[in-house]
Amino acid sequence: MAPCRDGYRRGIGCFVVIWLVEDMETERMDMIKFSRLERNCRQPVKEEMMHYKMAVLGNCSTQHLAMAVKGYAYEMQIALDAFDADYDQIDAQILNTDSEFYDFAPEFTVLFMCSDSFTQASRISSSEAFSFI
Question: Cα-Cα-Cα-Cα dihedral of 80, 1, 75, 67, to 10°?
Fold first, then answer.
């Protein structure tokens, strides 16, 4: 468990993702900031950093999300090893106990669901889907 800005203790997955989302709400996520997060992923890990393992599974492309979270974690002095599953591999990775997901043994998992998949699954239009939000 890691301390958060608000003084509470949360699991590291919540910690990193909440900070990233809070910053994205207050500061536009532009290419300059994304480039900085991408550079952070190539920085050497410092010995004093906390180390965690994160898996990102999604029904759409998730490599940019995984890179942004990992880069942001580096700014928060957290060394994050990330497993990014291939496109639309949630079921294959979770249901097969011999999968790369289980071999990686993440400490937390981010499930990223694309809204287009929700509309396809329920056969409603995007405008109908957003009317529920």
Answer: 40
> Whose CA is closest to 3, among 46, 47, 48, 50?
50
pLDDT tens digit sequence for 22-64 = 555 555 566 678 888 899 999 999 999 999 999 999 888 888 8
Lookup: tokens for 121: 């699954």
Of 46, 77, 81, which is closest to residue 67 (Cα–Cα)? 81
Exposure of 19 in the CB half-sphere (CA atoms within 13 A): 22
Phi first, then psi: give them for residue 123, nearest 5 degrees. Answer: 60, 40
Radius of gyration of the chain (CA): 16
Q: 47-64: b or e for each residue (b if 16 or more CB lie within 10 Å)?
A: eeeeebbbbbbbbeebee
